[in-house]
Amino acid sequence: MVKLLRTKSCANISGKTQILHAIVFMMRYLDVFYPHTSFSCCYYYIITMKIAYVLLTLLTVYMIYGPYKKTYDRENDTMYNEFLVVPCIVLATYQSSACFPMEILWTFSIFLEAVAIIPQLDLLYKIDYVDNYTVGYLVPLGLYRAFYMLNWVYRYYYEGFYNAASVVAGLVMVVLFALVFVRLYLLKRRGRRSMITVVM
User: Fold this and answer.
1) pTM for this structure?
2) How far apart are CA 45 and CA 64, in angstroms?
């Protein structure tokens, strides 16, 4: 969001990844519409954060395909989201621990979140330069996923809670973000070399 607002450009950002993140958050946070028995301060904080995640992600998608669509790299952001969404739906239906729709949608969101970075990775492999704003977006996103994995380790260790879908999705995310970081490193290194050549 900061990159979009500061640069007035969505260059190097995959709109397809943003759409997938919007689907992830909408499916995962559908529980805000279900009645709850506990209404503590923590409850209101969590509900507010869930709604903020969804709204900010939808706003990002709108900005990419709306006001900043002229800067959107449509020619390079060509991954078909259907190739990611459909297998995640099938896996979620098969893997879900209960047959409740909310449980299936939650599991679907876990699987989809793991692969949502693939269109961004595909875009990174098609471009020759990446700006600092894009790096500033992708590195914290990868760290967020790393902390999410630590959360699952913590819950397993202290609460005995284990979810196979989360573990598999987390491992897939780690591998994909490792590829993202390697590509970012190579792009930044190539950018420095070309700057040195121009100066000399």
Assistant:
1) 0.85
2) 28
What are 191's two structure tokens? Answer: 């950018």
**pLDDT band with cut points at 50, 70 and 90 for residue 54:** very high
Closest CA to 152 of 142, 143, 162: 162
State which residues form the domain around 139.
2-199
The pLDDT value given to residue 38 = 66
Q: What is the pLDDT of residue 36?
A: 67
Question: How many domains is the chain built from?
Answer: 1
DSSP characters for the chain?
-HHHHHHS--TT--HHHHHHHHHHHHHHTGGGGS--S---HHHHHHHHHHHHHHHHHHHHHHHHHTTTGGGS-TTT----THHHHHHHHHHHHHH-SS--HHHHHHHHHHHHHHHTTHHHHHHHTT-S---HHHHHHHHHHHHHHHHHHHHHHHHHHHH----HHHHHHHHHHHHHHHHHHHHHHHHHHHHHHHHHHHH-
pLDDT of residue 200: 35
172-199 residue pLDDT tens: 988 888 888 898 888 888 765 443 333 3
Half-sphere exposure of 126 (CA within 13 A, CB side): 17
